Amino acid sequence: MRDRDAQPVGGIARRLATILTSRGIDPAAQLTDPVEPIPALQAAQARIPARYQAAVADHPAVAAWVREVAQAGRPGIAGAPGIAQGRSLLIVGTTGTGKTYQAYGAIRSLLIAGVRLRWKATTAADLYAELRPRPGHDGERELMDLSRCPLLIVDDLGAAKNSEWTEEITMRLINRRYNEMLPTLITTNLGMADLRAHIGDRVASRLTEMSDKVILDGPDRRRALAAERRRTAATA
């Protein structure tokens, strides 16, 4: 992965920590699963893939972003905050470093924090497959719904095969969310130079302005877990 223009994770976390501290929020406080059930969280679990139903936004920069979004929410029913305009998050890392885990952990952490949340999640490949023109399907309506959704996860941006059509769809989606300043969680295993080559300069420029970048490094967690299972089985 190449990423010559990436910002250090510590710098993002410190900037968000300063904002939260100025608002009377402890940036070090952990958002853990509640003792009492939260109806919104219980409802969301059915839409979260089984592998990520216990995900926690435990990366410092992702957790700080969650608190900033929660604090900026508009008061709604019973005083509960709802998603408002805010920064997006671009989570970058090689395969298996936990990007999708952090994205779904952010959703769960917002619900735990009491945020009223309408959200959608898709992979880039599924996005293009769903919007591809076909009889009896209104792809334009689906694109508009994704563009207006208060919080959207786009997983594995840059992993799907590129074409002029996919570049146009990505541009229309990101541009609308950029213009409305709607928070978007985007994961990719491409560095910014490679991502720019894949999605085009116009999309990359908007992502750079609208998003804070978090870089996840370390070994492939999936391979590490598989190796641990093999060691456990060998010693059993």
What does the model show?
With 236 residues, this protein is an alpha/beta fold. The protein has one domain (9-14, 52-235): P-loop containing nucleotide triphosphate hydrolases (Rossmann fold, 3-Layer(aba) Sandwich). The chain is built from ten helices and seven strands. The strands form two sheets. The chain has a five-stranded parallel sheet with strand order 4-5-6-3-7. A two-stranded antiparallel sheet has the order 1-2. The chain is globular, with a radius of gyration of 18 Å. InterPro entries: IstB_ATP-bd, P-loop_NTPase. Residues 85-204 form the IstB-like ATP-binding domain.
Helices and strands, with pairings:
Elements: H1 9-22, H2 39-45, H3 60-72, E1 74-75, E2 81-82, E3 88-93, H4 99-112, E4 119-123, H5 124-131, H6 139-148, E5 151-155, H7 164-180, E6 184-188, H8 192-199, H9 201-210, E7 211-216, H10 221-235
Parallel strand pairs: 3-6, 3-7, 4-5, 5-6
Antiparallel strand pairs: 1-2
Helix pairs in contact: 1-3, 3-4, 6-7, 7-9, 8-9
InterPro entries: IstB_ATP-bd, P-loop_NTPase
GO molecular function, one term: ATP binding
Organism: Streptomyces violaceus (Streptomyces venezuelae)
